[in-house]
Design a protein that fits this description.
34% of the residues lie in helices and 30% in strands. With 396 residues, the protein is α+β, with helices and mostly antiparallel strands. It has a six-stranded antiparallel β-barrel. The protein has a six-stranded mixed sheet with strand order 16-17-18-19-21-20, sandwiched between helices. A hairpin with a 3-residue loop joins strand 20 and strand 21. It binds zinc ion. Zinc ion (ZN) binds next to helix 1.
C-alpha cells in the first residue's frame, strides 16, 4: 500500500520514492507505476488528481494521471516506462494543486456555512475546469436561495477566511471519532480522516487542504439553480475568484467605454439603448412594410381570374415583422391573392372572400403550411412563379 505523503503535508511538492510495480497503462504508449510513497493526490471526493513528473538518473517521466485502487495502492500514469526498483524523485505541479486546494477548502467552508445558517446538507463536490459545484438539500425541499441568503453565505465564508483560522487534518481513534461534532456521518467506517477548519467546519475527508482558511483567498458564489430537487451552488475561490473578477472588470470597462458611461451606470445605459433600438426598428419596419404593400399593388395583374387580383412578388430577405404587417394590410381588402418570396421565406395569402387553400398551394411548390387564408414556408423564389402558373391554370 502506498504511503500517502500529502496526508501530513499538503504543500510537499518534491519527494523521494521507489517504483514498486510497473504495468502497461490503459492507453497505448502509457505505463502505470506504483510507488512505495507518494505525494501525488489521486482523484477522489470530487478533487482531481495531481500532475507532475518522476525524475530518475538518466531521464524523467511525466505524470499525467493518478488513481488509487481498492487496495489503497496509488497508480501514477506515466508517458514512459521506469523499471521496478528505480529510485525516483517526484515533482508535483504545485500551481495546479494549490488551485485545487483553494476550491476544495472553499467548498468545506461553504458547506459548513450552508449547514450552520440554513440547515442545508451538502452532497458531493464537483471541481470543474472553470467553477465548482455542490448540491444542497434544503429544508422544505427548496431548490433556490434568495439574493440575501447568497450574500449572507458569501459574507460569512469570506469573513472566516480572513480570520485565517488553522486547518487541521488527522486520523482520530474510534473513541475520539465518536465524540467529534462532524457535520455529517463519514462515508467510510475505517481509517476515517477528519478535517477541522477553525471552529467552522468539521467533517470526514481524505482530500488535501490549505494549512489555514486564509489560504483559500476568497469565495464568490456564481449561481444557484435547481438540480434534481436540490439547490446546485456554483462558486469559485482563491486565484480563480481573482481571475474572474479581472475578466468581469475588463468586460465591464469595455462595455462602459463603448456606451460612454461609467460602469455603475452600465445597466441603465444598456436598457436605454435597447429601447431606443426597438423604437428605431419599429419605425424602420413601418416604413418597409408600407413600401412592400406598394410593391404588391404594382405587381397586381387582374388577368382572367374572375375579378380577383393576383400579385406575385419576390424581394430580398427582410424583417419578418415588416413582411407580416404588409401582408395583413394587403389582404384586408377584398379579392386579393398574394404570392411572396422574401429571400427564401414564402408567404402565400389571400383575402377572406377568395376560395383558394394557400396552405395546400404552398405544400405543392415548397415546404410549409398554415391556414387556408395564410400560409408560410421555405423555398426558392422560383416557387412563386410555379404557384402563379398553377393558380392561373386552375382558376380559369
Ligand atoms: Zn476535504
Amino acid at each position: 500500500m502506498t504511503e500517502r505523503l500529502y496526508y501530513d503535508d499538503a504543500y510537499l511538492w518534491e519527494f523521494d520514492a521507489k517504483i514498486t510495480r510497473i504495468r502497461a497503462g490503459k492507453q497505448k504508449g502509457t505505463w502505470e507505476a506504483a510507488l512505495n510513497r507518494s505525494a501525488f493526490y489521486p482523484t477522489s471526493g470530487g478533487q482531481p488528481f495531481d500532475t507532475g513528473k518522476l525524475c530518475f538518473p538518466g531521464g524523467e517521466a511525466a505524470v499525467t494521471g493518478v488513481e488509487a485502487d481498492r487496495e489503497g495502492e496509488v497508480w501514477h500514469t506515466l508517458d514512459r516506462e521506469i523499471p521496478e526498483g528505480t529510485e525516483v524523485r517526484g515533482f508535483i505541479d504545485g500551481k495546479r494543486r494549490t488551485d485545487h486546494m483553494e476550491q476544495h477548502g472553499g467548498e468545506h467552508m461553504l458547506a459548513g456555512a450552508v449547514w450552520e445558517k440554513l440547515r442545508g446538507t451538502t452532497i458531493g463536490l464537483h471541481l470543474g475546469q472553470e467553477d465548482s459545484t455542490i448540491d444542497v438539500t434544503l429544508p422544505g425541499e427548496r431548490t433556490h436561495l434568495t439574493e440575501d441568503e447568497i450574500f449572507m453565505l458569501e459574507d460569512t465564508v469570506n469573513e472566516r477566511i480572513r480570520m485565517d483560522a488553522p486547518i487541521r487534518c488527522w486520523f482520530p481513534s474510534a473513541e475520539e471519532l465518536a465524540s467529534l461534532p462532524l457535520r455529517k456521518e463519514p462515508a467510510v467506517k475505517e481509517h476515517v480522516r477528519v478535517v477541522a477548519m477553525g471552529d467552522f467546519e468539521m467533517v470526514a475527508c481524505g482530500g488535501t487542504h490549505p494549512s489555514s482558511t486564509g489560504r483559500i483567498g476568497m469565495l464568490k458564489i456564481l449561481s444557484v439553480i435547481p438540480a434534481k430537487g436540490k439547490a446546485r451552488i456554483s462558486f469559485v475561490c482563491g486565484g480563480r475568484a481573482a481571475a474572474l473578477f479581472r475578466k468581469y472588470m475588463r468586460c465591464a470597462d469595455k462595455a462602459g467605454a463603448a456606451l460612454s458611461c461609467p460602469v455603475e451606470k452600465l445597466s441603465r445605459a444598456a436598457s436605454d439603448l435597447k429601447s431606443r433600438l426597438a423604437e428605431a426598428e419599429r419605425k424602420a419596419n413601418r416604413l418597409a412594410s408600407r413600401e412592400l404593400t406598394e410593391q404588391f399593388r404594382k405587381a397586381e395583374s387582374a388577368g382572367d381570374l374572375k375579378g380577383i387580383t393576383l400579385a406575385a412578388v419576390t424581394v430580398e430577405d427582410m424583417d419578418p415583422r415588416a413582411v407580416s404587417a404588409a401582408v395583413s394590410d394587403y389582404i384586408a381588402e377584398k379579392g386579393k391573392l398574394l404570392l411572396l418570396a422574401a429571400g427564401e421565406r414564402l408567404t402565400f395569402a389571400r383575402s377572406e372572400d377568395v376560395p383558394v387553400d394557400m396552405a395546400e398551394l404552398i405544400r405543392r411548390v415548397g415546404r410549409g403550411g398554415g391556414r387556408p387564408e395564410l400560409a408560410s414556408g421555405a423555398g426558392i423564389p422560383e416557387c412563386v412563379n410555379v404557384a402563379r402558373k398553377i393558380l392561373i391554370t386552375e382558376m380559369k
